[in-house]
Design goal:
Layout lengths: L2 E8 L5 E6 L2 H9 L12 E9 L2 H11 L4 H8 L6 H6 L1
Antiparallel strand pairs: 1-2, 1-3
């Protein structure tokens, strides 16, 4: 099973939201449908970063770290080669 950590960016105020999921596209749809309390106030959201892990533990460790990052560090990781979003979307 694959585990993902994602970063979303609000199209309203450019804030970031970091999360964990097993299905990134479904999770993005849930955020943009207003199903998540925190993110419902800043819709719509765009996925800007995605990381893949073999274990849930590894994914949750990165998610916790990302929640402590400032905008500079988040922008750096979003623009890094570790971001697999473009590869994931291709398919």
């Amino acid at each position: 099973m694959a585990y993902y950590v994602y970063i979303l960016q609000s199209k309203i105020d450019n804030t970031y939201y970091k999360g964990f999921t097993e299905n990134p596209l479904q999770r993005l749809a849930q955020h943009n449908a207003g199903e998540m309390n925190y993110t419902s106030k800043k819709m719509p959201w765009a996925m800007v970063c995605l990381f893949l892990f073999d274990t849930k533990r590894e994914a949750l460790i990165l998610e916790r770290k990302l929640k402590k990052f400032d905008h500079t560090r988040l922008n750096s990781i979003i623009n890094s080669e570790k971001n697999i979003l473009s590869v994931f979307l291709k398919g």
